[in-house]
Amino acid sequence: MSAPAPSPLAIVDTEPLGRQGEVLTDEALAFLAELHQRFTPRRDELLARRAERRAEIARTSTLDFLPETAHIREDDSWRVAPAPAALNDRRVEITGPTDRKMTINALNSGARVWLADFEDASAPTWQNVILGQLNLIDAYERRIDFTSPQGKTYALRPADELATVVMRPRGWHLEERHIRADGRALPGALVDFGLYFFHNARRLVELGKGPYFYLPKTESHLEARLWNDIFVFAQDRLGIPQGTVRATVLIETITAAYEMEEILYELRDHASGLNAGRWDYLFSIVKNFRDGGRKFVLPDRNAVTMTAPFMRAYTELLVRTCHKRGAHAIGGMAAFIPSRRDAEVNRAAFAKVRADKDREAGDGFDGSWVAHPDLVPIAMASFDAVLGTKPNQKDRLREDVHVTAAELTDIASLHAEPTFEGLRNAVQVGIRYIEAWLRGLGAVAIFNLMEDAATAEISRSQIWQWINAGVEVSHEGRTVPVTAELARAVAAEELAAVREEIGAEAFAAGRWQEAHDLLLKVSLDEDYADFLTLPAYELLG
Fold first, then answer.
1. Handedness of CA 232, 234, 239, 245 (dihedral sign)
2. pTM as predicted
3. 475-510 burial, b for 16+ CB within 10 Å, e for fewer?
4. Residue 537: count of CB within 10 angstroms of its CB
5. Is 452 one of the annotated active-site residues of the chain?
């Protein structure tokens, strides 16, 4: 028996956008409906499995490599598919949302890859979701340009000078409330992937590239298996040769860190590599071990550098795993935003970026991320110095690396403590980011750093953790407990400071009170929200 026809999709609760019909064609919507019918039930099962696994971690406060998949780890014979030419050299990747100006600037940046982001760097407004897809179509068709309000024009460079696009859809937990089947919202991941693949897969093949993806917030190899099945179906459905898709998985959850080899194995015909995220990884540690007591308490987020012992264990295991299996290992983000007014700030920050990228290249990574075009030459120089004319260093097998299960969660080995200034920074950044997100901005410059949703997640998670673990900090010459009352007082001070900084009129025009209230809700509620973006999405225009 053949499967029943998918339910038709409805576009609801939104005003049509200009050129929306070019993205939401009848054929594209039919493809989304098929994806939804076939794969949303498994997605639902895997989300339920996440909750079960979290409950087990709460009970045991431990994680280990999976005994049932030991045979995959012990089998030295398998490798991922060879990298296509367009993804063989990934020494510098720039990240950012898919608005029109960013699309042009990222493609022109000199980076080898652009992570075109529909996830943490993009607030999922209907406009961002649909026009972001349209901007990518226009870029591939070379009919994209942009003129700023100041009259500055932007246009694409020649094709051979443009970055290769690797698109990041939303995580499995998020839904797209404006596209529904039988009254139910479709998963945002299927909407983002489906529209991009439907409109661009064949076009990209003709351009000598392919539909390449970054997969966010993966928590297990079973989630990677779901993605692989989606790729197989989508390629077959549209007549694209199997293996054309390539996926790089962000290892940005603590559970995925214990399943790196299994994740590559599930995706091996479509795998391109793994990436070492940072803020989401720390957020995941707090979320999963929030009941584990003081030994799992993280200090100020800026004190947790990639040289912390448990972060070293994670990144070195990632390089070892990738190169053992023939995959690219991609390093973390340089989030600094250069100042046009303070050369000394730039000098110090550039030195830190250079040291960070030198370390990654020296450790064996094949490339790394930056958030701003001005950082591309700095990161490029670090990797050029190690790679020379080689496209990557996958031949560095790092057989000296031996990481135990306990080392990945040895938070106590980091000799740093929470501080009052760390609390204040978490509140400041959290409020400022959420306010911008509620206005539709996902990538936000705050205190000379490009922040995205992962920033808000680690900020609110640390406030929650410090309160619930009974952390004390030094403030005004005395030791004080971090309490809900202290967090509320700091948040009130920050809100008043913002009003003073930007003026009453601009403050009233923003969404500052809502941001303040939401940060406190997800930081102080007894029940820890799995993702800040879930309640935030209810407030998004």
1. negative
2. 0.97
3. beeeeeebeeebbeebbeebbeebeeeeeeeebeeb
4. 18
5. yes
309 alpha-carbon distance from chain centroid: 23
b/e 408-433 (16+ beta carbons within 10 angstroms → b)? bbebeebeeebbbebbbbbbbbbbbb
Please, are residues 465 and 292 in contact by the beta-carbon 8 Å criterion?
no
> Which neighbouring-strand residues pair with 274?
249, 329
pLDDT at 4: 83
The first and second tokens of residue 336, run together, are: 């600094």
Neighbours of 72 (CB within 10 A): 16
Task: Output phi, psi for 310, to 5 deg.
Answer: -75, -25
The dihedral over CA atoms of 363, 368, 370, 374, expressed in degrees to the nearest 10, equals 80
Per the residue annotation, which of 100, 168, 290, 432 is the catalytic one?
A: 168
Residue recorded with tokens 């005395």 = 478
User: By CB neighbour count within 10 A (0-12 exposed, 13-18 middle, 19+ buried), where does 388 fall?
Assistant: exposed
The DSSP secondary structure of 459-471, one letter per residue, reads HHHHHHHHHHTT-
Instruction: Read off the amino acid at residue 326.
Output: G
- Cα 496 to Cα 72, 500, 518: the distances in Å are 56, 6, 16
Question: 182: which 2 tokens?
Answer: 């039988």
- CA 152, 158, 161, 165 torsion-angle sign: positive
Residue 36: both structure tokens together: 């939804």
- Put residue 459 in one of left, alpha, beta given phi > 0 → left and psi -120 to 50 → alpha: alpha
Residue 118 in contact with residue 169, Cβ under 8 Å? yes
Q: Active-site residue among 50, 180, 452, 460?
A: 452
CA distance 487 to 477: 18
Please name every residue paired with 185 in a beta bridge, in sequence order, or none if there are none.
Answer: 180
Please give the pLDDT value at position 1: 52
**Which amino acid would we find at residue 417?**
E
User: In the beta sheet, which residues pair with residue 247?
Assistant: 213, 271
Helix (H) or strand (E) holding 497: helix 484-502
Cβ neighbours of residue 473 under 8 Å, at least 6 residues apart?
417, 418, 419, 420, 422, 423, 479, 480, 482
pLDDT averaged per 10 residues in sequence order, the chain, 541 residues: 84 95 98 98 98 96 97 98 98 98 97 98 98 98 93 95 98 98 97 98 97 98 98 98 98 98 98 94 96 94 93 98 98 91 90 96 98 96 98 98 98 94 98 98 94 95 96 96 98 98 97 98 96 96 72
168 catalytic per annotation: yes
3-state secondary structure 91-130: CEEEEEECCHHHHHHHHCCCCCEEEEECCCCCCCCHHHHH
Helices 100-107 & 126-140 angle (0-180, nearest 10): 40
